[in-house]
Amino acid sequence: MSTAREFNFDGLVGPSHNYAGLSFGNVASFSNVKSASNPRQAALQGLAKMRALAARGFAQALLPPQMRPDWRMLRSVGFSGSDADVLAKAFAASPVLLACAYSASPMWTANAATVSPSADSGDGRVHFTAANLNNKLHRAHEQRQSARSLRAIFHDAAHFTVHDALPSTPAFGDEGAANHSRLGSSHGAAGVELFVYGRVEFDAAAAAPKRYPARQTLEASQAVARLHGLDPRRTVFAAQNPDVIDQGVFHNDVIAVANGDVLFYHQQAFADEAGTLAALRQSLATVEAQLRPVRVDSNVVPVQDAVASYLFNSQLLTKSTGAMALVIPHECRENAAVARYLDGLVGDGSVIDELIDFDLRQSMRNGGGPACLRLRVALTDGEARAMHQGVVMTEDLYARLVAWVETYYRDRLEPADLADPQLARECASALEALAPILGLPGLYDRD
Fold it and tell me: pLDDT for 81-119, tens place per residue?
C-alpha cells in the first residue's frame, strides 16, 4: 500500500460570476435568478476557504476558471460579426443564451470530472473522465476546457490518464464527481467506488423523478467505471431516490458525502437504502474495511432543510489525528433543524469531532456549497510530485491571487452587464494575467 493524501482541487471563481438562474432543479439557483452578484466577493470567499484548509494541513489546490464568454458557443448558434456584434445580437435575441455563454459554473469543480485513484484503476494510474454535463446548456460546453485544464495539471502520462467526456447524448448524462464517492480504509489502499445515478436510459420501467430532471444515468456511471478499469467487486452502482430529486436534490452530493469508511447520508438519499448499504459492506469486505454509516433521519432534518442548508454538500475530511472534520457553509448554522442536529453531532465517540464553517454565500446563492466547489483527487507522494505544482495552495499563491482578484474583478454584476463588451475584455484580461501566476502558459484556447 502506498502513502497517499487526498487533494481537494477547489474551483477558482471566475470574473463573470452571475445569477442567471440557469439550473432548473437547483432550488437556490432558481431562487436568486437575475439578482446582482458580486464576483470579487465570490472569488475571495473561495480563496479564503482554500487558504484556511491548507493552513490546517489539508492538501489543497485549485482548478482555474474557464474563458467567458464562450465565443465558440455563441457563434455556433448563429450570432455573427465582431465580438461586440455577437454580444449585442445575443442579448437582443436571447439573453438566456448569452447568460449560458457567460456562466461561471466551472467554479463547481465537483462536476469537472470523475476521478479514480491509482489504487483502484486497472493500470495503476490516476484516471480522470471529464463530465459532459449535457443536461444543462450552460454547463455542456465546459467539458473541452475541463479536459484541457486537467491535462495541463496532470500531464505526466506515467502517472495520469485524462479521458475525454462521454458522448453528449441523454443516454450518457454524466455529472462527474457530484454523483461519485469512494470508501475504504485509507486513500492509498484499494477502495470501493460508489456511483449514484438518477435514471436508467434503457429501462423505461425504472423509477424516475417527475418534476425535475435526473441528470446522471446508470449507463454513464458504468462507462466511466469501464474507462477507469475498476474492479467490479469493488464498484457499487446505487439509484438515487427520485422523490428527493423532485425536492431539489439534483446531485447525490446534496444529500450524501463519504470519506474513508464513513458514509454521512440522509435517510431518503437512496432508492434502496438497505440494499445500498449491504452492497457497500460486501464490497468493503473485499478490501478488509468496514462501513461506518452516519444516518440522518427525516424526522430530525427534513429533506427541505437539508437542501436549504446544504448540510450534506459539506466536505468530510480526515485530519492528521485520524478523526474527521465536517466543513459546512454558514447556512447550516442558520437553519434551526440543521443547527440542532449539528449541536449533537460532535461529541465523545462521534466519527466527526470538529465542525469548520465558511462564508460561501455568493456560491450558495447560486446553488453550490463546499462540496460543489472541490474535486477530490487521492495522490501518492510520487503522483503529487508529478503533477503541476503551480496550482497548489500556498501563502504566496494566496496573496498573489487575492491581488489578482482585486485588480480584475467587479464587485457588482447585473444581468444587463453581460451585453457590455467591456466585461468580455475584462474577463479576457483577467485570465491572460492568471495563466503566468499559475505557471500554465497556453492554458486557454479561445478558438
Answer: 999 999 999 999 999 999 999 999 999 999 999 999 999
Q: Which residues of 55-72 are buried (b: 16+ CB within 10 A; e: fewer)?
A: eeebbbbbbbbbbbbbbe
446: pLDDT strictly greater than 80: no
- Has 175 been annotated as catalytic? yes
Class (C level, CATH) for 4-68+103-438: alpha beta
pTM beyond 0.70, yes or no: yes
CB–CB of 246/208 below 8 Å? no
Measured CA to CA, the distance from residue 32 to residue 39 in angstroms comes to 15
Instruction: Determine the pLDDT at residue 33.
Output: 61
Which residue of the set 6, 142, 175, 193 is catalytic?
A: 175
Percentage of the chain lying above the pLDDT 70 cut: 96
Catalytic residue among 100, 332, 372, 427: 372
Active-site choice (127, 251, 266, 427): 251
Rounded CA-CA distance 366/343 in Å is: 27
The C-alpha atoms of residue 15 and residue 410 are separated, in whole angstroms, by: 7
